[in-house]
Task: structure prediction
Amino acid sequence: METVEHLRHLFSYNDWANRRMVVALKQNDSPRSLQILTHLLITEKEYYERLYGKDSTGFDFWPRLTADECGTLARECAEAYEKLLRRFEEDGLDVRAKYRTSLGVSHENTFRELLTHVLCHSSIHRGNIMLKLREDGFEPPKIDYIIYLRETKYI
Result:
């Protein structure tokens, strides 16, 4: 499997897992979990914009959103990344993006690197949400990759 095809698949899983988190947080009152989900999604959006050179100087990665707003943002992010990856060929992943971080520091990374970072960052924070939901007495959703594969018939 080529990297771009694999990234398309992983972003599909990412969307599936994010949406399950949104549903869980609409059903369970866990303010810190909602705050972490908001951070996860706003970061996905901001990194999408960084792919196109956005200056993120001063960007707030910890705004307050409702679960419904997170649902809308999750859908928007998934659609944006899906459209982006649909247009890409393998060599496009090596295109370099120049951007500024929230601290105003200039950086340059390939699309492949930035897209991989988005997936890893989101996965880390979904794990944080799972732990926080358990600490708050709620049963978190099942979002394991293997469950995604089984439910979507990828294996």
